[in-house]
Design goal:
By secondary structure, this protein is an all-alpha fold. It is 62% helix and 0% strand. The chain has three domains: 57 residues, no CATH class; 41 residues; 49 residues.
Length: 200
């Protein structure tokens, strides 16, 4: 290895290790080639559900780290991201329609307003027509979701102890912040519950 190669190696690895042996060379960044980036994509998808947009962001972070820590070429990395996304889509591992359906259903069960669900999916790069289709598959309506939200947060008729009327404005504000319109919030607060605590 000549001096030029040695300098380049030290530049990637960090400061030269002191004679005492107490220091450590900086660990090289992640490799940047198609097989390694594809392995990362598979590893990511095994752990988290992802839209194409969220997976692209994860791959971009991986590439940025390789560029920052190992001097990899950013343009090459950007091209590899497109190749890897095409591969996992062809393998059926990334499908925005299934992702949107699953996430919308999970949010709806938690009592999330339809408007908030649409905003959430849009922030994850889901196309408008796919969002609309996902919302159409949800059971019930915003009142159903609002009741689920009120039950989870102990609002209105689901409040334990105290007079619900004294908390009316606070509960209306909480439902508004959650994305429900005034008429839906009013309907929730007018809702009765039977003796066992279930909604009537």
């Amino acid at each position: 290895m000549d001096d030029t190669e040695n300098d380049a190696t030290l530049g990637r690895a960090g400061a030269e290790r002191p004679a005492s042996g107490k220091g450590r060379a900086r660990k090289a960044g992640p490799r940047l080639d198609e097989p390694s980036l594809l392995r990362f994509a598979h590893w990511y998808l095994e752990r988290w559900a992802a839209s194409e947009h969220t997976l692209r962001r994860a791959l971009a972070r991986r590439v940025a780290r390789a560029v920052r820590e190992d001097g990899a070429d950013a343009a090459t990395g950007a091209s590899l991201i497109d190749v890897v996304l095409s591969t996992v889509t062809r393998q059926g591992l990334v499908r925005d329609d299934l992702y949107a359906d699953a996430r919308a259903g999970r949010l709806a069960r938690r009592g999330t307003a339809r408007r908030r669900i649409a905003e959430d999916l849009s922030s994850r790069g889901i196309a408008g027509d796919t969002i609309a289709e996902a919302l159409e598959t949800l059971p019930g309506d915003d009142l159903t979701a609002a009741l689920a939200y009120a039950r989870r947060r102990r609002l209105g008729p689901f409040r334990v102890g105290g007079d619900p009327a004294s908390h009316r404005q606070r509960d209306l504000a909480a439902l508004a912040r959650a994305g429900f319109d005034r008429s839906t919030a009013e309907a929730v607060l007018a809702h009765g519950i039977v003796e066992d605590g279930s909604s009537a």
